[in-house]
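Request: Mind sharing a record?
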Amino acid sequence: MAKTAIAYKEKMKEISVLSLICSCLYPETRKNIMGDFEDMDIKPINKRASGQAFEVILKPSSPVSDVAHCITTPPKRDLSLEDIQKKLDAAEDRRRSQEAQVLLALAEKRNHEHKVLLKAMEENSNFSRMAEEKLQMKMEQNEENRLAYMAAMIERLQERERHAQEVRRNKELREEVTA
């Protein structure tokens, strides 16, 4: 699969952009271009409204091309016990670091939640205190108004009582004068 993909990439480099543009503009020259490649067949598919369509078919690669495209992998070096231990230690350090970061993030989140809770409790306490003070002031105002109303009523009653005594006295004086 990889060799086929490499061969395809090399052949696509060989096809110039100019030849593709020319094949789209001049269909009579397109037939000559289609058969020029040895290990690749290019077949035009039915013309579509959006433009030209091509099917590219790669032929099986020959043994000569396998040798040319053979990529050697670098030799694997043997891992010693020390190298393996170093890698394990590095992995353990990364795991501890990641755990520390997660714990730090959780601690910050918990701290933020605690601050939000304290702020909510403080606001609730302030609201309760303000409501209590407002109620206390209202009750004091009502008490003052009630006392003022009672004093006014007593004053009016005393005024009526004085007026009634004055009327009685005047009546007694008139009776004495007429008698």
